[in-house]
Structures are given as structure tokens and as C-alpha cells.
TrEMBL record:
Family according to the record: Belongs to the PPR family. P subfamily.
Gene3D superfamilies in the record: Tetratricopeptide repeat domain (1.25.40.10)
Protein name in UniProt: Pentatricopeptide repeat-containing protein
Keyword DNA repair in annotation: no
Organism: Anisodus acutangulus
């Protein structure tokens, strides 16, 4: 293949240092990790016996769309679907619900909602609870009102459990699950959401225990539920725990390619650890499990992310020889790594090949070219790719503009923000977090403060991350008075950061907290001077 020969020439001219992992041993799990135990949901279940096959099966076609997604409810998609078919003024009712919070008791608030004149339905209750997801008490008030009016769908129960989990109110969330049990409702999705929220709260032990107690609810999880559980652990970074749990419970859930692909996806696309990914690849061979197109797609993605062009193209060639036809995700990975290695012409040829195959390039295809070009400050080439993107009737996404923001000046940043608003793709909180971080790293606090003013003009409400980044950056630039001013604004919005509060405590010689004047310190300790003595630099003594 011509691309593979190109990779060999690049590899020979600019050899990449490869760390071979032939004798690599998997690190033992630390003692702090939750103890995993083998559990059984049914009395007897015979494990299936696998035999190594010398001739691997050759499925006809592989595409990324064929890969099974083991995900919980996507609430964003539910909201978009309801908004398309709903003509209810959600914002107006959100304002009414916020007024109900002024009452002293829940009964008075409920009576106020009863008399507000709004006729509830399941879609309205779901959408309003979604809008109030940052204020769990108000969301819970509306949930109880919807329950009273019998206007709760199954997705609304799951959404409320998800919101309570986000705010750490797990006991209240469990009370809702108990209510579902009393109503003889299937709680499997609700329990998976609880597992997801425990993992998001960095509590893998609770997540595993929650999966194990499904037995108490007389529910035997099937293979899909098991794979969804593994995917949740991997998504939140607990890949070692997911792998160990899969191996320990192989009698109940026989080792199959789908489970290994979930673990492989964790190492390849979430953590991006090429050595662990190669280890899993070998483990699959030891267990007599044949890799499939999804396995190759994950590995090619991982090699491309670490900018290993040679192995990306080698696996692509091997994938085709074994009869797997790559999907768009594989070609996107190749396009990215080729662009990173200054092979832009070859990347464009891949796009042409994708079109000839009948696959339609999407926004990710072009963004994977624009991003590395902007990182390398090749803005003219990035703009030409953007022009090709628009020629193909593909609208730029918020990720497209974020790529250009990574190397824009203050004037260019403001211009890009205006373009984003006109295109209807932001800016959002992540956009301004990216800009503030960039200007603080460049030690340009004045530009960061100007962007802060722009953020309020775009009606983007700053969160804790924005304040922490700005105040911390101002302290690093020794702008103490401005840092205190922004911290006071942060506290007025009921946001606090213990680390910043400690730094801003008036304990220093000039009320600058732990950040002291370097002229009055020596090896981190305060130096006292006489009344009429002059503090001189060591150079001038």
C-alpha cells in the first residue's frame, strides 16, 4: 500500500522511539481499590467453553455505526427531541417555579404551583426539571408536584435521580428507587444511573456495590447490562477495576470480544495508554478471542492520538487484509495522524477516498485537520481546510472555533466570539474557560479581565472553575487587589474555593495572605528588620 510505504520512509528518516512491551507486566492493583468479589444472580449457570480457531471468521462489513453503544439515557437527546415537538414556553414556567421557592414550607409552594394556572403534562415537567438541574431543591419541588399531578414519565424519574446524584444527594435518590420498586417499575436504568453518578463522584467502590445489589431486587443483569456497567467504570477512569471485575466474574459472564472491546476502548480513547492497550490486545489472544473491526478501530485511534503514523497505517493495512472494511472513525484517525506528521496532501486524499466509498465526511473529519494545524500555528492552512469544509456544506462546530481560539490574539478572539454568536454555536462556558486559561498561561491578565467583561455581555454565567482560574491567575501575576475584588464577587454569587480562601487570608506582612513580599522573606520565612534599616538586595551589599 502506498500510504504504508510513505509511513516507512517517514519512519526511517525520522525514527520514533518505541518502547517494546514484550516482557511488560501489568502493575498490581493498589490496596485502596475496592475489593471485588465473585457474585451469582442465578443458582446455576454453565460457562461457555471457548476453543481457539485457526481460521478467524470474516464478517462482511465493519463500520463505526455497527458498534454497539453501551450507554445510559442521553438526557441531552431527550431534551432536543421534546423541544422539537413541544410548543410550551418552558422559561415562563421556570420563572414561576423559582417564585415558589420564596415560600417557607413545601405545602405552600405546592399550593402556589396548583394555583399558577399552568396545566402540567409529562413533557413540560421533564423540560422544566432539566432547566433547573443546577438547583436540585427546585427541581425536586417540581418533581414532587409532577408526581402529585401524575405527570411523571419513566425518563423523568431517571432524570431526577441523575440530578440528585450530581449534587451528592444519594440517599434521596435511593428513596426514589424504592418508590419505583413499590410501583413495580423496572429499576434497571435507574440503578445504572446511580452507578454512573457514584463513578462520577470518584467512588468506584459504591458503584460496584450498587451493581452487585441488583440481586437483592430479584434482577439478573443480562450481558448488555454488564457491558454497560463496565463502560460506565471505564468512562470515569476506573479501567483497571472494570478489567478485574470482568475477569473475576467470567463464570457468570463468559469472556467475549464485546467485553474486551469495552476495556480496550477505555485504554485507547479515554486514558490513551498505548502500553495498556497492547497488553489487552495480547490478553485477547491468550483467551482465544479473535479481534474484530471494533478492536482495530480502537487501536488505530490510540496510535493516531500518540501520533504514531507507522503503526496506525500498519494496523489499517492488516485490518483490510483480514476482511474488515474500515468505517469513518478509522479514516478520521488516519486523517488526524497524517496532518500531525505534516502529510496534509495525503490526508486530503483520504477524504477524497472516503467520498468515493460512499461515506460522508462529517465535522469531526475536518476538525481533526484544523486542530493540529492551529496547534502548529499554520493558520493559513487551517483556514483553507475550513473553506473546504464549508464547500462540502458542513457547518463549523464549536470545536472548530475552539481550535482557532487556541492561537488567536485578543482582537482575533473577540472576532471569533462574534462569528460564533452569528453562527449560533456558542460561545459557552467551556469557550471562555479555554480563553481565560490561555491568557493566564501567557501571563496576560489584562486580556483575561477584558474577556471576563465580554463573557458577561454574551450572557454566560461564570461557574466555580472560571472564578478559580481567574483569581488564581491574578495571584500568580501579583495583582492582589484585583484578585480580592474578583474573590469577593465569587463569594457574592455563593461560590467558594477553600484553596483560594487560604491564599487570600490576611496573614502576610501586607495583608496578602500566604503570598508574601519576596523582599521580606528568606527561605520562605518572614525576616524582621530594624526601624531605620534599609532592606538591600544581596547583589548590592
Amino acid at each position: 500500500m502506498r500510504l504504508l510505504s510513505l509511513a516507512r520512509r517517514l519512519y526511517n528518516s525520522r525514527p520514533v522511539t518505541f518502547k517494546h512491551i514484550i516482557g511488560y507486566q501489568h502493575p498490581t492493583l493498589v490496596a485502596a481499590q475496592p475489593q471485588l468479589r465473585r457474585h451469582f444472580f442465578v443458582a446455576f449457570r454453565q460457562p461457555s467453553v471457548r476453543h481457539c480457531s485457526t481460521i478467524p471468521p470474516k464478517p462482511p462489513f465493519f463500520s463505526s455505526s455497527n458498534s454497539t453503544s453501551y450507554e445510559i439515557i442521553n438526557f441531552d437527546k431527550c431534551v432536543d427531541t421534546l423541544r422539537e415537538k413541544s410548543y410550551i414556553d418552558v422559561r415562563e414556567f421556570v420563572g414561576i417555579v423559582r417564585k415558589a421557592s420564596d415560600f417557607g414550607s413545601g405545602d405552600e409552594a405546592m399550593l402556589f404551583l396548583d394555583e399558577c394556572g399552568v396545566k402540567p403534562n409529562k413533557d413540560l415537567v421533564f423540560l422544566v426539571i432539566w432547566e433547573l438541574r443546577e438547583q436540585w431543591k427546585l427541581a425536586y419541588l417540581l418533581f414532587k408536584w409532577g408526581e402529585k399531578c401524575k405527570c411523571l414519565s419513566e425518563n423523568t424519574w431517571c432524570l431526577m435521580i441523575w440530578i440528585l446524584g450530581n449534587h451528592g444527594k444519594f440517599s434521596t435518590a435511593w428513596s426514589l428507587i424504592r418508590d419505583l420498586i413499590q410501583m413495580s417499575t423496572n429499576i434497571q436504568e435507574a440503578v445504572l444511573i446511580m452507578i454512573d453518578r457514584y463513578a462520577a463522584a470518584n467512588n468506584a467502590g459504591k458503584a460496584i456495590q450498587t451493581f452487585q445489589i441488583l440481586e437483592k431486587f430479584s434482577m439478573s443483569p443480562d450481558q448488555r447490562t454488564f457491558l454497560t456497567f463496565l463502560n460506565i467504570l471505564c468512562k470515569h477512569g476506573f479501567i483497571e477495576e472494570a478489567e478485574e471485575f470482568m475477569l473475576i466474574n467470567k463464570k457468570l459472564f463468559p469472556l467475549e470480544i464485546d467485553g474486551f472491546n469495552v476495556i480496550l476502548n477505555g485504554w485507547c480513547n479515554i486514558v490513551v495508554d498505548i502500553f495498556e492497550a497492547k497488553r489487552i490486545w495480547r490478553e485477547m489472544s491468550k483467551c482465544c478471542i479473535e479481534t474484530n473491526g471494533i478492536s482495530y478501530a480502537h487501536m488505530i485511534s490510540c496510535f493516531s492520538k500518540v501520533r504514531n503514523l507507522f503503526d496506525s497505517l500498519r494496523l489499517y493495512d492488516e485490518m483490510q487484509k483480514r476482511g474488515w472494511i474500515p468505517g469513518l472513525e478509522v479514516y478520521n484517525s488516519l486523517i488526524y495522524v497524517l496532518t500531525c506528521e505534516n502529510c496534509v496532501k495525503e490526508a486530503l486524499k483520504i477524504i477524497d477516498k472516503v467520498k468515493h466509498m460512499g461515506l460522508r465526511p462529517d465535522s469531526s473529519t475536518y476538525n481533526l485537520m484544523i486542530h493540529p494545524l492551529c496547534e502548529s500555528s499554520k493558520l493559513d492552512e487551517a483556514r483553507s481546510i475550513l473553506a473546504l469544509m464549508e464547500e462540502d456544506n458542513i457547518s463549523p462546530t464549536i470545536e472548530t472555533y475552539h481550535a482557532f481560539l487556541a492561537s488567536a490574539s485578543l482582537e482575533g478572539t473577540v472576532e471569533i466570539l462574534n462569528t460564533m454568536r452569528k453562527a449560533g454555536v456558542g460561545p459557552n462556558r467551556e469557550t471562555f474557560l479555554l480563553i481565560l486559561d490561555r491568557f493566564m498561561k501567557l501571563k496576560e491578565p489584562e486580556n483575561a479581565l477584558k474577556i471576563w467583561v465580554e463573557m458577561k455581555q454574551y450572557e454566560v454565567v461564570p461557574k466555580s472553575a472560571h472564578y478559580s482560574l481567574l483569581v488564581g491567575g491574578l495571584l500568580e501575576c501579583r495583582l492582589f487587589s484585583k484578585a480580592r475584588e474578583m474573590y469577593a464577587e465569587m463569594q457574592s454569587n455563593e461560590i467558594d474555593d477553600p484553596g483560594l480562601r487560604k491564599l487570600l487570608q490576611p496573614t502576610g506582612p501586607r495583608g496578602q495572605g500566604d503570598v508574601k513580599n519576596p523582599e521580606h522573606t528568606k527561605k520562605g520565612r518572614l525576616v524582621k528588620h530594624g526601624r531605620h534599616k534599609v532592606v538591600r538586595n544581596e547583589k548590592h551589599r
